[in-house]
Amino acid sequence: MKELFKYLGGDRNIWVLAITLGLISVVSVFSFIPILVKVKGLSYSYLFFKHFFLLALGFVIMYVIHKIPVKAFSKLSKFLLYLAVILLVLTMLIGESVNGADRWLKIPFVPFSFQTSDFAKLALIFYLSRQLVKRKEEFNDFNTAFKYILLPIGVVVFLILPSNLSTAGLVGMLALVMLILAKFPWKWIGLSVGSMAGVFLLLLVLAKLQPEILPRVETWRMRIVRMGDDVDPKEQGQVNNALAAIKNGAITWKDPLPEGPGNGVFKDYIPEAYADFYFAALIEEGGLPMAVVVIVLYLAMFYRFIKAGLGAEDMFATYVALGIAVMLLSQALVNMMVSTKLMPVTGQNMPLLSMGGTSSWFTCIAFGIVLSISRNQFKTNTETEPNVIE
User: Could you please report the per-residue DSSP string of 31-67?
Assistant: First the structure.
């Protein structure tokens, strides 16, 4: 292990967390794909090696990114945001539809697609981090605050909104947290939140008159309705099967051991056991102990990211690390809450755990960026012993 870490810079704790999550993903996803095998007629070996290859390539990307100084992303932040906006518009026009939502954009010349919102989240974090540092003395000037900070947030959120309400909400919340951390004036925060809520309500009203404006409004409404207890069980089969899987994995005095990998029953009836309902399938086979382990790993990730950010040499890197920490933890929490029926069904994966294809690459990029920040911290701080696991 020491030989391996000689070639890895930055916080070793983050590397250990990433590798641990990756190993859990390889084992668990192989166990959670029976329904995918049945529905798509693909073999276990194909799906397993595809997931393993994409995840392994993600770690290569993580390694490459962690070698790039974070200042390079500061210089590219405006370009990355413009590119994200263009990609989001292209997704709306020519994107691939999944479950009625145009979220995916085909990558030319290769058999892969990616969710442009994954790229947009990182691009917005870079852009906001730079602007919050650059415009700090101009926060009270509404024209500046609106043009360089509030308007870009609104554009990204409303471009994501038509196809993915939950992601749009998470992006808005992420931006709000970053604004609060940067001590952005509350008067502008309140005004922007109120304005965005007003525009959203207006869109809902218009969608009733012209459904093509927001074609997924009915889907959103039904998902909220299905949260109730008086709904026909057939209407909420996904959630009921997820809850049944959790119950099946519960440890009791009569049955003190969890089902174990590969022995889950209800995972075969959860359409997205390997992705959107990953946490439910995990509990069925690993029981409460495995759920606790995963939660602890994510909390440890959040802590190490925050620590890397607070130890950074400049505020840009600090905001980037804090933004990424909030982005990944909130995504994991949403997956857990959906699986346990604490919120309506959404399409949020578990970072580095779910079978996500190219989405795992963006998670690896996020890890690599924070590793780059911590790597630079170890270089510049001679009093800190680099790569020490605390």
Answer: HH-HHHHHHH---HHHHHHHHHHHHHHHHHHHHHHHT
Residues β-bridged to residue 104: 96, 115
Q: pTM of this prediction?
A: 0.88
- Specify if 337 maps to a domain: yes
Rounded Cα–Cα distance for residues 204 and 161 (Å): 12
Burial of residue 239 (number of CB atoms within 10 Å: 0-12, 13-18, 19+): buried
Query: What is residue 4's predicted lDDT score, i.e. its pLDDT?
Result: 65
Instruction: Give me 234's structure tokens.
Output: 């057939």
* pLDDT tens per residue, range 214-229: 766 666 666 665 655 5
Paired sense of beta strands 113-115 and 101-106, if any: antiparallel
Each residue's pLDDT tens digit, 198-253: 888 887 777 777 776 676 666 666 666 565 555 555 556 677 788 888 887 776 55
- Model pLDDT for residues 308-366, shown as the tens digit of each residue: 999 988 999 999 999 999 999 999 999 999 888 888 878 788 999 988 778 899 999 99
Give the total number of structural domains in the chain.
Answer: 1
**Measured between alpha carbons, how far is 42 from 75 in angstroms, rounded to an integer?**
44
Residue 388 domain flag: no
219 in a domain, yes or no?
Answer: yes
The number of CA neighbours under 13 Å toward the Cβ of 385 is 3
Which residue range is the domain that position 185 belongs to? 2-378
Q: Which residue type sits at 282?
A: L
Residue 312 lies in a domain: yes
